[in-house]
Amino acid sequence: MPLALLALAIGAFGIGTTEFVMVGLLPQIATDYGVSIPTAGLLVTGYALGVVVGAPLMTVLGTRISRKRMLMLLMGLFTAGNLLSALAPTFGLMLAGRILASLAHGAFLGIGSVVAADLVAPQKKAGAIAMMFTGLTVANVVGVPLGTLIGQSLGWRTTFFLVAALGLVGLAGIARLVPELPRPQGVRLRHEIAAFRNVQVLLAMAMTVLGFGGVFAAVTYLAPMMTHAAGFADGSVTWLLVLFGLGMVGGNLLGGRYADRRLMPMLYTTLGGLALVLALFTVTAHNKVAAAVTITLIGALGFATVPPLQKRVLDHASGAPTLASAVNIGAFNLGNALAAWLGGLVIAGGLGYTAPNWVGAAMAGSALVIALVSSALERRGSAPNRQDHAAVENPRQQPALR
């Protein structure tokens, strides 16, 4: 694999750390600013919404410059946002810093996916995308627990200073290692937007929202679920998240490896398995060992869908993939927000802390149905092409002209 993928993975590591470390530091930040926990939760919500908006916005703004230069600008924006968060004297400025950093998130991973795929041979594209996303998954195993520990020991501002430093390392790595790939000729904003007329691109994004959302329907409420249903101590939740992160790393690499060989069968397997495991989690959540195993499986199956879904979008938007790729990253976060909202509704409705698992199972199952529909439409669309090809190969079989 090219060394340039390492630079992209470092950037993804910083992005993954700053996105999820807030969960562990939220009480401390709320106390320092004198706001309630729900108010401090806006730092999480604001970041997610910033990703959804920033993915297409920043990609559109960067259509006239090279992808390498845009990646460098996005890392600079990410670094500036985290510095503002670290230095913010008021909660409002802290929120502004979070939103500023989030604007770089979707566009960086989206453009980075295109660049990663361009760096390798066609049969290795999904593996290259997975290698970049490894930085994001490893962040949940190393960056988030370490950032939480540092923040609790040395103050949460120290964590954001360190994340900003990671941004600078990623920026330097991109400048040094990522080649100046030629900008596709004739590609303009209208071509990028035209990719969304392809029904397969839209179906892949729907799978992203529902499939990945199914993961976060359960994970968003993991802490109260594990302490109330399984009987874990509050301090054990951090290690459960590490197990989830380890599952993410393994699933991401597995998804990248097999998506290059059999993309749709890989999606059928992972989405179907995810729906089944989430449904079983309503039962296994009441046993410590079974719950720990299930959490690892959810991370693995959930992130095994990421490389194939991202590659499917790139394949079907091949003429102008940059905007579609970035919007699909926003779709992951849209799924997170939707799942968290729906999970909160069923808890508020008195159905218990394990009820969000049913929401997740339904979302993943719906994504599987969409995958089957997408594949059927693809086969139907290719059938005339095969018939035309057969007619050319066997002209004797063509009906005579009268």
Automatic annotation (TrEMBL):
Its main location: membrane. The chain crosses the membrane at residues 38-61, 73-93, 99-121, 128-150, 156-178, 199-224, 236-254, 266-283, 289-309, 330-352, 358-377. It is a multi-pass membrane protein. The lineage of its organism: Bacteria, Bacillati, Actinomycetota, Actinomycetes, Kitasatosporales. The keyword Transmembrane helix applies. Keywords: Cell membrane, Membrane, Transmembrane, Transmembrane helix. Residues 381-391 have a biased composition (Basic and acidic residues). This is MFS transporter. Residues 4-379 form the Major facilitator superfamily (MFS) profile domain. Residues 381-402 are annotated as: Disordered. It comes from the Bacteria.
